[in-house]
Amino acid sequence: MRSTQIRRHAMARQERAVRTRRTILEAAAAVFDERGYTSATIGEILERAGVTKGALYFHFGSKEELALGVFAEQLAISLPPQSSKLQELVDSGLVLALRLRTEPLVRASVGLALDQGALGLDRTPAFGMWIDQTTRTLTEAKAGGELLPHVDPTETAELLVASFSGTQLLSQLRCQRQDLEHRVTVLFHHMLPGVAVPAVLARLDITPDRAGRLLAEGRLLPVEGDVAEVG
Amino acid sequence: MRSTQIRRHAMARQERAVRTRRTILEAAAAVFDERGYTSATIGEILERAGVTKGALYFHFGSKEELALGVFAEQLAISLPPQSSKLQELVDSGLVLALRLRTEPLVRASVGLALDQGALGLDRTPAFGMWIDQTTRTLTEAKAGGELLPHVDPTETAELLVASFSGTQLLSQLRCQRQDLEHRVTVLFHHMLPGVAVPAVLARLDITPDRAGRLLAEGRLLPVEGDVAEVG
Hints:
2 copies of one chain form a homodimer. Chain A has 2 domains: 2-61, Orthogonal Bundle (Arc Repressor Mutant, subunit A); 76-220, Tetracycline Repressor, domain 2, CATH 1.10.357.10. The longest helix of chain A has 34 residues, at 2-35.
């Protein structure tokens, strides 16, 4: 009985820590978004989050670590496995488009990565994490015979990430990202014929409402483990 | 004789005006680049350019008009016509990559278009001008039977411009755009199989040194007429 109680206490404490961490990240994202990274101060983030200085520094050692935590939120979701790795790649793009449209924290993450005025902030990790994940998926797709023989997974991953970034920026300027999921399907429809073997290409589901359907089916889960590691 | 003299005077005056305009744009680009659009003042631009207030306001009515003039520099170059419109599209991308690497004014133009902190600046014209030009080229390519039947020139143009923007941003973060021409060939090699009919695709020259060759052959000319109109 006693050990169950201890475990229950530990779990409650961990859940609280996850919630606090999330509150701090959301506050940091909002302050970065409104004031820009350079002008934002830890004091403002503390005030917005309504947590103690100790709680903040328990999770994040500096303003830069807060930015890294915000960056990591782009990828902090687990997608349902598919028989085709290229379908998983398409799903990750469409889900990111949906989250950019609906989650302020994910939006701030991308805004921060594109903020040219962010003095002293190394913005390469934001792209690096995302490129690494895409390269892994494409390498698996290649091993499974889904890619045309000349395709270099790293080169294609860098192009996809770069093109997605530019696409979300144009969608933001044009209509506050309301058409982002459609634009991401256009991106995949243009890119994949130069990448996928025809038999795989023909079976991919590249439709703007796919991410919404996965979400409605409850098949998108936050990656709490990964999130906790980053802080 | 007299009319020849008048004409010569008029031409000298016009050449001087073109040079002054260019000096002002270069100064504006440098100040926007260093201070950001929001903090930059007309006074700083005047000081940097070493021209009178009257000269500046003759060419540009406001800080926003200066920004529009800087934007327009991206496109202010005339490329040699090719038998394939898709080759002209490839050339325009490769030449822009070369100019981004070598011309500070073009670099500032793109920096300004991507500057999320540029308060009160409508950044859509920077993309709009570029998308319009790309759409025109693709519409001509379609009329000439170079495109696959399902291709929508506007949709493809928006995707190409967005993908190019993201690509130059990643290249800038990674290596100050030293590999931009290579990345742009990767972009075209991925996109064009989904766009071009195979017989045209097979004959395109998509090589990183193509823009340098056109430049060495003296086949890239500034479009002074267009530039003068924008101001």
